[in-house]
Design brief:
By secondary structure, the protein is of the alpha/beta class. It has five helices and four strands.
Length: 170
């Protein structure tokens, strides 16, 4: 199972974020993967096969920027959750292997969204604009290839949080 759904908004200083936007953000980025993982583990517990969960996290969990408190917190929470489940599954009879992965800076809708935020709300917007202009964004296709390659490695799940995803050379 791959938990890849995620949102970036709200991107603004915390005092400008509405309570319902914060709650929705956490529901999508953190609570949904927790619930999905719970169901996956519960419903596959009896199955004797290789079971894997990959949670798509972000370097934003570790490297904080202003105005991204919701995103960084949800991804740090996802990392912590993944570590906890990794520990829970260590001594299970039919364990689920789990890892959270930082995929890199990928050319997705989230990147388009961050580049459109007002500088008053997100002082680092120019840096994200420059990443795109310099052609430094990974393509979704190459990122998907690297993620799937990692998911199928024998050592998947040995490290609960993987910060550096190695691209598949083609």
């Amino acid at each position: 199972m791959i938990n890849n759904a995620g949102v970036l908004s709200p991107v603004a200083p915390i005092e400008h974020n509405k309570a319902e936007d914060i709650a929705q953000h956490m529901q999508i980025n953190l609570i949904a993967p927790m619930v999905m993982t719970s169901h996956f583990v519960q419903h596959t517990k009896h199955i004797e096969t290789d079971k894997r969960i990959m949670n798509i996290s972000s370097a934003s969990a570790k490297y904080l920027l202003p105005a991204q408190s919701c995103y960084s917190t949800s991804k740090a929470g996802l990392d912590s959750f993944t570590k906890s489940i990794n520990l829970e599954q260590e001594n299970q009879r039919n364990p689920v292997k789990i890892a959270a992965v930082y995929p890199g800076v990928v050319d997705t809708r989230l990147q388009t969204e961050i580049r459109s935020v007002r500088k008053e709300d997100f002082p680092y917007v120019d840096e994200f604009i420059q990443l795109e202009k310099a052609g430094k964004l990974q393509s979704p296709e190459e990122t998907a290839d690297a993620l799937l390659h990692f998911l199928n490695q024998d050592d998947f799940g040995k490290q609960a949080v993987v910060e550096h995803l190695i691209p598949v050379s083609g």
